[in-house]
Design goal:
By secondary structure, the chain is an alpha+beta fold. The protein has helices at residues 2-24, 44-50, 54-57, 62-65, 125-165, and strands at 27-33, 39-42, 85-93, 99-111, 114-123. The protein is built from 5 helices and 5 strands, in the order αββαααβββα. A 5-stranded antiparallel sheet has the order 2-1-5-4-3. β3 (85-93) and β4 form a beta hairpin.
């Protein structure tokens, strides 16, 4: 019994470590029943990402919350139905109507003899905002270079005329 308790304690510690790591890197994790496409478990980051209570998430269909298309059934484009669905990028529409860019990885797993799809979502809205700011800065840089070139093209003939007049 002591050996079994030690193994259970070690298993619990490893589970908590994994949860802490996933929470630390900001990964929303959804455990989806592979047969019924129902969310059977999720972590606290998933709750925050969807801005929904855990009671609402658990038992819901995955395509109601974490799929790109709200079709009422898994679509052919659903990452859960594809093999090797790693870092599929799409926009997640939260129940409150907000749209969040995310990357999604779906991993098929067997846990205690039952098939699950583990959907891991990362909110990439900060990266997308930085990309927009970078694109804007590059546009401003291009306009600055263009203005500099035009000023140079205007200045050169004016200097030529001024020198000839002297």
């Amino acid at each position: 019994i002591t050996q079994r308790k030690l193994l259970e304690l070690k298993n619990q510690e490893q589970h908590e470590l994994l949860e802490d790591i996933l929470r630390g890197i900001g990964a929303a994790v959804f455990y989806v029943d592979a047969q019924k496409y129902r969310i059977v478990n999720a972590n606290s980051v998933a709750e925050a990402l969807l801005n929904e209570k855990m009671d609402t998430i658990i038992g819901s269909r995955c395509y109601d919350f974490i799929c790109a298309e709200k079709t009422g059934k898994p679509s052919k484009g659903c990452p859960a139905l594809k093999r090797d669905s790693v870092h599929v990028e799409f926009q997640l529409t939260r129940p409150d109507g907000n749209i969040i860019p995310v990357t999604k990885t779906v991993l098929p797993m067997t846990i205690e003899g039952k098939r699950y799809l583990i959907a891991i979502l990362f909110d990439v809205s900060k990266q997308k905002e930085m990309e927009r700011q970078l694109a804007y800065a590059q546009k401003l840089e291009s306009v600055g270079q263009l203005a500099s070139g035009i000023a140079h093209e205007i200045n050169t003939p004016i200097q030529y005329v001024g020198s000839n007049l002297q």
